[in-house]
Amino acid sequence: MKLAALAIAGSLALAACASDETGSGGGSGSGASGGSEDGPKIGLAYDTGGRGDKSFNDSAYAGVEAAIEANGGEVQELSPNADASNRADLLTQLADDGYNPIIAVGFNYADVIGDVAEQYPDTQFAIVDGTGVDVGADNVTGLQFAANQGSFLGGVAAATKSETGNVGFVGGVQSPLIESFEAGFTAGAKAVKPDITVQVQYISPAGDFSGFNDPARGQIVAQGMYDAGADIVYAAAGGSGIGVFQAAAASGKRAIGVDSDQYETVGDPALQAVIMTSVLKRVDNAVEAYIGSFVDGSVQGGQDVVNDLSTEGVGLSYSGGFIDDIKSTIDDYTQQIVDGEITVPETPSN
């Protein structure tokens, strides 16, 4: 398997931060982003932080852009307000305005997407990192990722490269989804070095989603790990990951990015120098494929599409060349997972 092909080589078209695109209510983002009048009218409701996070949201936008290039169409982007209390309103606004399909970026929409979709049975909805099964509507598709598998490879890389036998995991918000990143990372690290120390800390507790968009706090948490002996820290924290990279640069250590190839998207050469690899969750590919299936009429709601190592839906980036020398090790563990010889846990052992 050629995991190097998973690197996103600068495919993300970064733009101004969502805070510059949205009004004080956070209800409306940029309108049609290129494309043409032909093709689908795509609604895109972002997760916390909006477009410009150089991570999760940007990857979703890149998938929409690729779909528009292939199929025509246009996109309307909306971002949640500061406390993210208007998620249902965003989906409703897009549906009322005739956008179809509508893509909700992030599991935080799980509590509202079923109710909204039920009110608009002729509109197709997708939720990234959520489920389309048993949500009360048959027009919702879940776009899921085996993030634990990709994170396992991140743990393998961290343990193989660590010189101190001490690595760290910074999660944005304590939740079952982010805990699956933690579980995979820890399992991968311990598969290589059973006695390795894995420091774990979350920026915000369950229910408080500020941890995905708080670089200052991310920097403080990561700095504490570096000070405690970690030489590589994995940031599964959305926009807060920038703070982890800043702490790595200040400490002369290294970090691991998440979701997109953050070596390519971070923009700052000083931060690029510390991003050893990124655990890729190919949200862009999943979103593009979903829109393509909508265009050709094959979308079937009420189900989940799972992207894992076997489909190259997750993996590691090789940008910068920092882990080129351990590619054979990464490939070996990848094959063991694909062949079922290794079952990667989805929940932390402790």
TrEMBL record:
Pfam family, one: Bmp
Location (main, coarse): membrane
Keywords: Cell membrane, Lipoprotein, Membrane, Signal
Span of domain ABC transporter substrate-binding protein PnrA-like: 47-346
Domain of life: Bacteria
Subcellular location as annotated: Cell membrane
InterPro entries, per the entry: BMP_lipoprotein, Peripla_BP_I, PnrA-like
Disordered: annotated span: 24-47
GO cellular component: plasma membrane
Compositional bias of kind Gly residues: 24-37
Leader sequence residues: 1-18
Membrane topology, as annotated: Lipid-anchor
PANTHER family referenced in this protein's UniProt entry, alphabetically: ABC TRANSPORTER GUANOSINE-BINDING PROTEIN NUPN (PTHR34296:SF2), TRANSCRIPTIONAL ACTIVATOR PROTEIN MED (PTHR34296)
Similarity field: Belongs to the BMP lipoprotein family.
The protein's name in its UniProt record: Nucleoside-binding protein
